[in-house]
Each structure stands twice: as C-alpha cells, then as structure tokens.
Amino acid sequence: MKKSTYLFILALCVFSSSCTMMVKGIAKLLVKDYNDYTDTYISDIQIADTNGNNHSFGSLYKGKTVYLYIWGNKKRSAQQEKSYRLLKERFAKYPDVIFADLYVGSDTSSTNKLGDDASSAKFRKILKIGDPAPFIIGKDGAILAYKGPKPDDKIIVDYVLYQAMGGENGTKSAKRFIRGVNGNDQFKSPKLIEWYTSHFGKAPDHKLNMSLSSTN
C-alpha cells in the first residue's frame, strides 16, 4: 500500500473507536524511515556562504541540534513558509536548536549551497530530494531524522525536534508520541502532558489537534 493511500485512510479516520489501532499502525509506518542513515555523520560536509567561501557543517553548527531544511530547485510553498516560521518561533527559547537551509540544486547563485568535496558528494547521494525536506541533525553531526517531520506536522514535529536535543532519533521519539495518544485524541502519559504544557505554555486541549504527512 502506498503512503499516499495511508494518508487517505488517515484523513478518513481519527484516533478513536475501531480506527485507533489502524491509524496508529499507519502513523508508525510513516515515521519508520526517520531513522534511516542514523549512522551517518555530516560534520565534514562543506557549505558555501554568501561570498562563496566554504565552511564545514561542524564548524558552523558545533554543539547545536539543527533542523536542516534541504531543497533543490523546488522551493517551499507559502503555507510551508508560514508553518516553518511558526516552528522557529516556538523553538526560539531553546539556545540548543538552530534552523538552517541547505541548497542542493543547480543554481550557482544560491547561498548555503552544498559543496563539491568528497564528504559532501557522499551526503548528496543519500538525499533523493524532490520536494523540500527537513532533516534533524544532532549535536555530534549525526542524522537523527532523515526526511523528518515537516513544520506543519502538528505537535509531532515539536516533540521529535525537542527530543533530538537529547540525541534521540526521530523514529524512536515519534513512535513514543504515537503510543502516548489515546482513542480520544488525548495524552495517556503524564510526561507528555508535562512536556506539552512546558513547551507550548498551556495545558493540552480536551482534544489534540494533530497531523502527520508522508516523507518524499
């Protein structure tokens, strides 16, 4: 079954009644690829700045958890830009988190462009970028979420990125989040309630407003 079909079913069902287990199963399938390439480190890849000078990823973002939006010749939509801006605003209070763009297309005038050295070429081979896709990179340069949750994946993107600050890969944290939601779209876990209240500055609503999209 294709992921587009999963999303159609997900749109028909909510986390309730007989659909609960099926929807949770589909959601887990959608996040299972986040931990692809978690043994890959990108600290050595080169990024060209506005002046055409190359800098290693590790030197630019040392000790930071990076939400790295990678795009080719297709840019983010207006709605994606809005969701991205709001996500950055929610994480502005965490000094450990950095948001960055990386261009891998053919426009030579673009900035923050992936270099042509051996390490960058190796990284380019695993990207397979069509639409713009976010990656989450850990403080040690490891890929924690390969084509991870998008800015408009409500709540789950916040949780996965938050957990990445502690070095946890995206699949593990996303599955914990999915398991922690009950049939009435509420948190089962006191820890999730505590995290939500601290992160969003308010207690969770009676029914959580959540969404999850497919990877490319």
Provide structural commentary.
The protein has 216 residues and is α+β, with helices and mostly antiparallel strands. Helices cover 37% and strands 14% of the residues. It has helices spanning 3-12, 20-31, 57-60, 78-90, 118-127, 156-164, 170-179, 190-200, and strands at 46-48, 54-56, 65-71, 97-103, 113-114, 133-137, 143-145. The protein has a four-stranded mixed β-sheet, with no helix packed on it. The chain starts with a helix and ends in a 16-residue tail after the last helix. Mean pLDDT is 86; it is low at 1-22.
Average pLDDT over all residues: 86
Q: Describe the main β-sheet briefly.
A: 4 strands, mixed
Shape: elongated
Structural class by sheet pairing and helices: alpha+beta
In whole angstroms, how far apart are the ends? 15 Å
The value of Rg in angstroms is 18 Å
How much helix, percentage-wise, in residues? 25-40%
Poorly predicted tracts of residues: 1-22
Count of strand segments:
7
Attribute tags:
7 strands; alpha+beta; four-stranded mixed sheet; elongated; disordered N terminus; three-stranded antiparallel sheet
